[in-house]
Amino acid sequence: MDTEKELAFRSQKIWRLVWDYSLPSIVGTLVTALYNVVDRIFIGQVEGAFAISGLAITFPVMTLTSSLGMLVGSGAAARISISLGKRDHHTAEQILGNSLLLTVILNAIFITLFYIYLEPILMAFGASSLTYPYARDYLEIVLLGNVFVSLCYNFNAMMRSSGYPTKAMVTMLIGAVLNLILSPLFLFVFKLGIRGVAWATVISMFIGMLFVMHHFTLRSSVIRLRWRNIRLKGRIILSIITIGLSPFSMQVAASAVALLMNTSLLRYGGDLAVGAYGIVNSILMLVLMVVLGLNQGTQPIIGYNYGAGNYHRVRETLFYALRMATLFTTAGFILGQFFPQLLASAFTTDEELLEISSTGLRIAMLALPLVGFQIVSSNFFQSIGFAVKSIIQSLSRQLIFMVPGIILLPRIWGLKGLWIAIPVSDTLAAMLSLYLLVIQLRHLKQMEQDQLKIDLRHD
């Protein structure tokens, strides 16, 4: 990393540094969310309520496939930040090369399996005779392009972690703008229906991938993609996966919960309830992507300073991120409580679907102000290399507390009980995160004091 970027990580004011890195990341994550949300808006308005329900069925599959990118990209980005903090550029470049090959191999294996067993998977995930054709037509195309999605996500994360947040944002914007152009073109002009929207997404991500990977072939890049590093090394792969397991487990858990939720919604509310969940998820995604963007921006700052032993800056970055995340999620909570029908109307004009979505959105967002704290806490542990604690927090909100709620609460309150399970899980997960974070901060404070004693001895 060049001297200017190193000095910024070590000495620039934290609030300014956080926004220098987080603002491009927030734009990038919102752009990523818009890939899915724009598809749902166009399809819901043009193809109808059952089409958007069909898209909701694909959510667990898309979440599961995106977990491959999370496993490699998040782990590699965190390790690169820590390596650069230690001034170990050679290891950082090895991580970059290994992540490319690992991503391609994982996609080849898992996407092939998904494609072979697509019909039974979709039926198990809650598809009906009315929604299955829409889900199948969309996934048959999007799955083929998943490797582009994974590579685009991975290299974007590594671009940020090596000190290029603005450039990472621009590469994501290129794909997003292209998707906004191609989706209506294929849908309205060429009349390709849901398949056209799927092709627009794949083509856009492919172009975005080319731009982001090209960066690492330039001599001006802090770390470069070199042929000699595109080979699997056990030590490097293990270091990537141990950190990447947290966001990976979070995505897998989200997929499992979405599967259980879809089948429960079908049982207690029918196909339209499944569609409503798709709308609620889309709106929640837009709010939480802001927090995820904040996390992506703070991750290299925390990772670098932790690797460099600047523990006071690690704590300062964490506290600032917690305040900002809570502010964002509280704003989302207010919008969800006062304007649920307005938000849902972007996706559908069907009156019954609008009513179910509005009720679900209002209930699902009840504990949203706590979710920002919980997600930032999990990211903090991931950034400093404490994979197990990060995984525990990720699974608590997405799986451990959520599943019992989905199983038990609808027996008492029916469809409304399924919506209630979401804020209950969010609240319990936030309490667990608070407990783990307090313990870790005490340990970090002790490390800071020990470091200060060492520095005084050297003086």
How would you portray this structure in words?
The chain is mainly α and 459 residues long. The chain has one domain. Helix content is 86%, strand content 0%. It has 18 helices and no strands. Helix 3 runs parallel beside helix 11 (271-308), helix 15 crosses helix 18 and helix 16 runs antiparallel to helix 18. The mean pLDDT is 89.
| Residue fraction in strands | under 5%
Rough outline: globular
Main beta sheet strand tally, sense and closure? none
- List low-pLDDT spans: none
Task: State Rg.
Answer: 22 Å
Order of helices and strands: HHHHHHHHHHHHHHHHHH
Counting DSSP H or I runs of 4 or more residues, the number of helices is: 18
Structural class determined from secondary elements: mainly alpha
- Count of strand segments: 0
The overall pLDDT, averaged over residues, is 89
Distance between the termini: 27 Å
> What is the total number of structural domains?
1
Question: In which range does the helix fraction lie?
Answer: over 70%
